[in-house]
Design brief:
16 strands, 425 residues, binds pyridoxal-5'-phosphate, alpha/beta, 39% helix, 17% strand, globular
Length: 425
Amino acid sequence: MQKNLKMNLQDRDRKHIWHPLTQHQTAKDPIGIVKAKGALLWDENGKEYIDGIASWYTTMYGHCNDHIIAAVSEQMQTLDFTMFTGFTHEPAVRLSEKLMEILPENQAKIFFNDNGSTAVEAAIKMALQFFHNRGERRDTLIAFEDGFHGDTFGAMSASGISSYNGPFEDFLLKVVRLPVPQEHNKDRVLALLKTLLQQHQCAAFIFEPLVQGAAGMKFHDAGGLDALIQLCKETNVLTIADEIMTGFGKTGRNFASDFLAHKPDIMCLSKALTAGMFPLSITSCSQDVFEGFLSEAPSKGFFHAHTFSAHPLGCAAAIAGIDLMLSKGMQENQARIKLSHEHFAKVLSTRPKALNVRVKGVILAFELDNAMDRYGSQRNQLYQFFIDKGFILRPLGNTIYLLPPYVITNKELNKLYDTILEVVN
Ligand SMILES: *Cc1c(COP(=O)(O)O)cnc(C)c1O
C-alpha cells in the first residue's frame, strides 16, 4: 500500500482503469488531477490548468463553489438517501418548485433520473408509451443529423454522430433525420419534415435547441426550429428538447427553449443542473403528457426507475445551483463573458485561418481552415498543444470552442484568447 501511494496517479491508473471515449493502445496517459477551484484545476505535479469548457459544461459556477459545497454538506448530514418510489423528500420537492419558476410555462411535471443519457431514455420512453397508452402504433423518432443525445441505446439511436454509433447501428430504434434549419434552407427542412410525417408513424421529434454541442457547437436558426415544433404540434407529434448542454444560462437565457415561441412537450436537463457536484438529471413534461399515463390500469403508468432517482444530494446541489444562476453576480458574469467573446470574435474573424466565428451567450466557436478527423492525429496535436500550455480545451475535429465557467476572470479569459490567436496566426 505504502509503495502504491508513492507511485504517481498515471502509473496506478494504467494498471486497472478503462477510460471513457479512449483508445487505450494509442492514448497518452490521463492527467492526474488533485484539486480544483473556480476556473482552475491542478495536476499532481502542481501544474495549473484553466478549464475553458467548464469540465464538459457542468461546473458553470466554478469548481468547489462554496455555496454548492455548503448546501450539499448540510443535506448529507440530514438525509443521505431514500428510495423515490413510494417516498419523497424536501430537496426533490423544493427543486421541482424552483424548476417550475424558471422552466417554460407549459412544463408541469418533473421526473428524476441520474445522468444525461437516462434523462433522454426516459423522454423517449415517455413519448413511445404516451401513444401506446392511447392504442396508437407509432414506431419512429425524428432527430437532427449530427445530434448528440447520449450513449445508452435509446439516446444513441437519436444521436447522429456515427463515430460513436458504428458497431451498434443494427440494434437501434427507428429514427428518421432532418438537417438543422438555417436561414437559407429552413423552408426546405420544413417541407422535408412534412414528408417524413406522412411517410412514417412518428411519435416524437428530439433535438438540441439552437446549439448542437458534440456536433461541434453548431448553431441553427430559432425561427426555423420554431416552425418545425409548430408543425409537430399541429400533427400531434411530441417534441423533446434536449437541453442537457444548453440549459442553465449558457445561451444567454436560462434555457435555449426561451428563445422559441413554441415550447417543447418534454425537456431533458443534466450537466450544469447540479453544477458538476453530483450526477442527476431531469425529464420534465407538460400536463398533457403526464395525463396520458393516468388510468385505473397499472400498466399504463410509467414503469421506469433508476435506483438513484432524485438523490437528495444531487437535488441539494441543483437547488443551490439555480440560486447561483439567478444571482446578480452570475447574471453579470454571463453578460461580461458574452461581451468579451463578441469583442474577441471580431478580432478572430480578421484571421484567414479562423472560419465561421460565432458567439451565443458564453459559447464561442470557430473552425480552423484545415479539415481534421474527430479523433485524428492533427486534432490530438491541437488538444495536446493547449494542454501543454495549461488550457483545457477539447477541439471537436477542427472546431475550437470556449464554454468557460461563469466565474472565469477577465485575465483567465484573455489567456485563453491569446493561446487561440497563437493557433490561428
Ligand atoms: C452530455 C450530453 C448528453 C449525455 O449526458 P451523459 O450524462 O453524458 O449521459 C445528452 N445530450 C446532450 C445534448 C449532451 O450534451
